[in-house]
Amino acid sequence: MSDTTSRPRLPAAYWRLWWAAAINNIGDGAFTAAVPLLAVTITRDARLISIVSAAAYLPWLLLSLPAGAVIDRHDRVALMWRSQAVQAIVVAVVAVLATLGRVGIPDLAVMAFGLGACEVVFSNASQAILPDIVPAALLNKAKSNQYTITTIGRLFFGPPLGSLLFAVTVALPFGVDAGSFALSAVLLANLPRRPHKHAARPPVRTAMAEGLCWLTAHRLLRTLALLLGVNTFCFQLGNVTLVLLATQTLHLSARDYGLLLAGAAVGSVLGGLLSTRIVTHTGELPALLAALAANVIIFAGIGMSPDAVVLGGLLALNGFVTTVWNIVTVSLRQRIVPAELPGRVNSVYRMLGWGLIPLGALTGGFLAHQFGLRSAYPIAGALRGTALAFALPVLVAAARPASATPGK
């Protein structure tokens, strides 16, 4: 009994953040299934579909650095709920346009960019705020819970819901997503504020440079950020035309496409649930290396999938190892980065890690148009393998006990 009472527990403020993520991600999952299905009703050109995906991630390249400086200078709770409120408005506008039958690829691209810009602020702020409300000893558990509920909502429950709602009426999944953003904003607005003391407030340009200099001087995190950049480029290179591969090559219906995404999410859910045990058993960096190596093989196989069952299984395996990789790297970052720099360092890390996604989307669209819908995945697997080979010496050195002090 004394052991139970002395065991640290996640605080109530964390669970409010968790519930906001749970509600928002179900709406996001519905949105994730509905957008490509809507795009396919407008055009079958892989290049045009890739433009929508590229627009969604372009803000990570353009806005991540200044957003990090803003996050370290202003109330993170306010930034989070206000960004969710703006997203609710943007998606509601799309729902209205879809109802009127007046939505096109340019409209989807503008919407995707606006949502992506808000996501840059929200995502960086939510990562920076977690150490403020969760004890250091529970960060890994808290992040694992976050990834699990994100995966369940965004990939497991949301996509089938979105595809079913899309079959009823095109606008319905977008209305659900707008409502989820609004409810999430209400929950986040009531999070407790933790004052951050700053001895001085340097200019935004100086603050951005501080985050960039800190990350570039840290050998392990710098390597992980660059490796993430290559991996996300490769992920989007293949994934941008997944809807065409599923619906045109494998002849899945809109409902079956949502079920495919949900089936793939099973692996991500298991990754979130089991990541803590895996890391405890193997150590952080060995688990990370195994996940990266598995990704190389899985991506090469996805492009050769003969049917939806094999494709769903490989996507599930990819979700499992990707979730383990994400949890390990985010936990490392939250533990290593100084308390006064998380917003700036996270924004630089995400800029390097996610900045190439728009280019990956466009490249994938043109490769699919030129060489076929299956071509991008094996190319992405080969690029991932090459990047891992270059990063391997740093990761192996960091995994050794003698390298316990990172950043050298």
Number of strands: 0
Percent helix range? over 70%
Instruction: Tell the overall outline.
Output: globular
What is the mean predicted local confidence, pLDDT?
Answer: 82
What this model shows, in words?
With 408 residues, this protein is mainly alpha-helical. The protein has a single domain, classed as MFS general substrate transporter like domains (Growth Hormone, Chain: A), CATH 1.20.1250.20. 82% of the residues lie in helices and 0% in strands. It has 17 helices and no strands. Mean pLDDT is 82; it is low at 1-5 and 402-408.
Task: Describe the protein's topology.
Layout: H1 2-6, H2 12-42, H3 46-62, H4 64-71, H5 76-100, H6 105-133, H7 139-168, H8 172-189, H9 204-217, H10 219-239, H11 242-249, H12 254-282, H13 284-302, H14 308-336, H15 342-354, H16 357-371, H17 376-399
Helix pairs in contact: 2-6, 2-7, 2-8, 3-6, 3-15, 3-16, 4-6, 4-9, 4-15, 5-6, 5-8, 6-15, 7-12, 7-14, 9-15, 10-15, 10-16, 10-17, 12-13, 12-14, 13-14, 13-17
Keywords:
17 helices, disordered N terminus, mainly alpha, 408 residues
